[in-house]
Amino acid sequence: xxVSPPAITESLCPHCLRRxxxxxxxxxxxxxxxxxxxxxxxxxxxxxxxxxxxxxxKWTSGRLGSASSxxxxxxxxxxxxxxxxYDCGICQNHEQATCTAILEVTRECAIxxxxxxxxxxxxxxxxxxxxxxxxxxxxIKDNRGLCPIQLSGGEPTLRDDLPQIxxxxxxxGFDHVQVNTNGLRLANDExxxxxxxxxxxxxxxxxxDGLSDEIYxxxxxxxxxxxxxRTVERCAELKVGIILVPTLVRNVNESQIGTIIQFAKQWIPxxxxxxxxxxxxxxxxxxxxxxxxxxxxxxxxxxxxxxxxGELRVENxxxxx
Length: 321
Known about the structure:
This protein is an alpha/beta fold. It folds into two domains: 3-59; 101-316, Aldolase class I (TIM Barrel). It is built from nine helices and 13 strands. The strands form three sheets. It has a six-stranded parallel β-sheet. Strands 1, 2, 3, 4 and 5 form a five-stranded antiparallel β-sheet that branches. The chain has a two-stranded parallel ribbon with strand order 11-13. Helix 8 (257-266) crosses helix 9. The two termini are 32 Å apart.
């Protein structure tokens, strides 16, 4: 076993959310995060990267400090403010620019997906009103400029006034307003989709986990394939773009990565891209994952090349930054 010097950083305890020191440890061809909490003791070593096909240092080049540095999370001197990552919001201490600001306009959702990281459900609380949403948009504008906006939740299309929210963002100067949605209302309410388009919706960030009802039954708790396909058809009719967003769950739908990409090709130009999201193990999901349960970026890169027969290759995909 080969062990390289650890890189020191900071993280959170998964039990009490205390900010604690952490170490990125390089062992053979994998990278792990090790951390301990004063209250909960030494925590399980978590696999965060596999060195093939992209070395961790190369993928994160320019974004992480050296192995000997300490990457401190920004803290606040203001009374009653904990600082990053608890309540800093759009914080000037962060070195990276905001690529997309996510605005949660509701915590409500009608599906109750077994894997929902936000634990969204019906009757989950009051929605922010238009004046509050305008204040949030103004805060983004003041702190990060007119960056792309994603309206999210919960399920934002449960709001009848979502088209007015889109129109408000456009009037304030935001020229890219995306709606994050499960697509159910778009499939079943033609007038609503047209209202969103006419209000200035740029595209839809569409939950799309695969091309079989078995997958949706396991991930979302109900068969949804026909509804998803109708949503894509309706967006094509409206001439509004879609980003397909599969939540990848080990032993459920990672074998459909190539199938989803081929489906996306068939629906160009309506489908603008595919945004693979490995499952987040928090919220409604009841169990802590083992390292074997995790789907990492290197796993996805290899699956894309293998499942497209080399039509897309690892080297075609470049890291952010």
